[in-house]
């Protein structure tokens, strides 16, 4: 029999409040099967850490460190936004990955990321296998955007949705208490480049405040300024104030973003950084109705709030890591375990494996059935989908009045290869 092959795990893309639960799931599961898996390494900064040979031997993590990892916000092993070039453009990148995998006897690659990361993982595995070093590649699902197709939801979304809904609820109570003599309009900006999943999560405040004067503006619907202002005016006239939640990726009828923060120019692509749409809407309302307005952009807060984690979401993320390892044990390659709901009341689910290439090319958007005809509110069907995903809370350990979440420090393995610098 062949000896157990080593494992490498890496985190990619924007983080979630529960991504490290997935990391713990992978590490614990591989430890339980020493007959199949040798050492489990974690790359620092995703695929960049593989290229630059910056890795941690997770066998050195004791039980206390693993338990700490399960509640740590951010990406404990430091995620990256780095897409490999095509093989034709930059064969040296692939040659380097293969060199590292051979040096460390890597037979399994678990990549924890979103849609784009899945393509990177598959390209790496295909190249290694084509060059005589077979590598089993399994994706580990993660994204607060909830745009992962072929899955009921994405690990990471439920906690971000819980934070958004909670923040909007609290801000609404603030606005209600002040609107008679102060602010009349408040707008919160949620992440979501092409999808409005986090935006519609704000609509959950209707379960607490059924008559709340709320406007929901998801990325799936083009912004109609005239209809929006008419709605704002009606709500302020009838209820005294208006609260709004908007997708950062809101566009006009021609598909142009309402607000762009910055455009980052790289060697091969331009990356549009969105942001500021809430501020734009706040100014529009203030100027139109000559009233006081406020806007807020939670930005990184919504994806890193470890004090507001959904127990359901945490469980999904933890089991996603274990499901990825189980897929490898079952002989699968090039797949991503996704969430398949088996019961809606109570919510129960299992993981089913889908092809990495297939899921990487798809994007799940908010369905029309979740939005009212005017596109400015959510339906009961949306509430029924969202509510189970935010349920449950996890206790947070505090130290000197603040969450005990100082970064975990890891010792890197000593390099075996020549130095390499990953260039974007």
From TrEMBL:
Q: Which UniProt keywords apply?
A: Cytoplasm, Glycolysis, Kinase, Magnesium, Metal-binding, Transferase
* Cofactor(s) needed: Mg(2+)
How would you summarize its activity regulation?
Non-allosteric.
Q: What is its main location?
A: cytoplasm
Family note: Belongs to the phosphofructokinase type A (PFKA) family. PPi-dependent PFK group II subfamily. Clade 'B2' sub-subfamily.
PANTHER family, per the entry: ATP-DEPENDENT 6-PHOSPHOFRUCTOKINASE 1 (PTHR45770)
Q: What does this protein do?
A: Catalyzes the phosphorylation of D-fructose 6-phosphate, the first committing step of glycolysis. Uses inorganic phosphate (PPi) as phosphoryl donor instead of ATP like common ATP-dependent phosphofructokinases (ATP-PFKs), which renders the reaction reversible, and can thus function both in glycolysis and gluconeogenesis. Consistently, PPi-PFK can replace the enzymes of both the forward (ATP-PFK) and reverse (fructose-bisphosphatase (FBPase)) reactions.
Q: What is this protein called?
A: Pyrophosphate--fructose 6-phosphate 1-phosphotransferase
Origin species, per record, is Hydrogenovibrio crunogenus
Q: What is the lineage of its organism?
A: Bacteria, Pseudomonadati, Pseudomonadota, Gammaproteobacteria, Thiotrichales
Q: Which gene holds the coding sequence for this protein?
A: pfp
């Amino acid at each position: 029999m062949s000896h157990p092959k080593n494992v490498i795990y890496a985190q990619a893309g924007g983080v979630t409040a529960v991504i490290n639960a997935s990391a713990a799931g992978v590490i614990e599961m591989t430890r339980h099967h020493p007959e199949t898996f040798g050492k489990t390494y974690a790359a620092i900064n995703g695929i960049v850490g593989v290229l630059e040979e910056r890795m941690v031997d997770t066998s050195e993590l004791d039980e206390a460190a693993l338990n700490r990892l399960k509640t740590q916000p951010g990406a404990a092993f430091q995620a990256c936004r780095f897409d490999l070039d095509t093989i034709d453009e930059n064969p040296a990148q692939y040659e380097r990955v293969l060199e590292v995998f051979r040096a460390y006897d890597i037979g399994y690659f678990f990549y924890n990321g979103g849609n784009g990361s899945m393509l990177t993982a598959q390209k790496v595995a295909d190249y290694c296998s084509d060059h005589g070093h077979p590598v089993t590649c399994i994706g580990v699902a993660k994204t607060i955007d909830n745009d992962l197709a072929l899955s009921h939801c994405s690990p990471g979304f439920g906690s971000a949705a819980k934070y958004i809904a909670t923040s909007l609820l609290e801000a609404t109570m603030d606005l209600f208490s002040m609107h008679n003599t102060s602010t009349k309009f408040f707008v919160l900006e949620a992440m979501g480049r092409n999808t409005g999943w986090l935006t519609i999560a704000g609509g959950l405040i209707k379960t607490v405040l059924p008559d709340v004067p709320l406007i929901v503006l998801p990325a799936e619907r083009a912004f109609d300024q005239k209809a929006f202002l008419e709605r704002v005016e009606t709500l302020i006239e009838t209820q005294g104030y208006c609260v709004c939640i908007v997708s950062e990726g809101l566009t006009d009828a021609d598909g142009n973003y309402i607000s762009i923060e910055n455009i980052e120019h790289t060697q091969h692509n331009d990356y549009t950084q969105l942001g500021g749409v809430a501020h734009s809407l706040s100014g529009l309302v203030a100027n139109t109705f000559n009233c006081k307005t406020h806007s807020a952009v939670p930005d990184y807060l919504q994806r890193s709030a470890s004090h507001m984690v959904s127990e359901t979401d945490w469980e999904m993320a933890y089991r996603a890591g274990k499901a990825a390892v189980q897929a490898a044990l079952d002989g699968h390659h090039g797949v991503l375990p996704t969430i398949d709901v088996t019961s809606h009341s109570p919510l129960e689910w299992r993981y089913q494996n889908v092809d990495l290439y297939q899921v990487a090319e798809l994007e799940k958007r908010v369905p029309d059935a979740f939005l009212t005809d005017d596109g400015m509110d959510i339906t009961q069907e949306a509430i029924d989908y969202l509510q189970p995903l935010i349920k449950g809370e996890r206790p947070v350990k505090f130290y000197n009045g603040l969450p005990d979440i100082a970064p975990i420090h890891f010792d890197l393995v000593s390099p075996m290869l020549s130095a390499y610098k990953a260039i974007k």
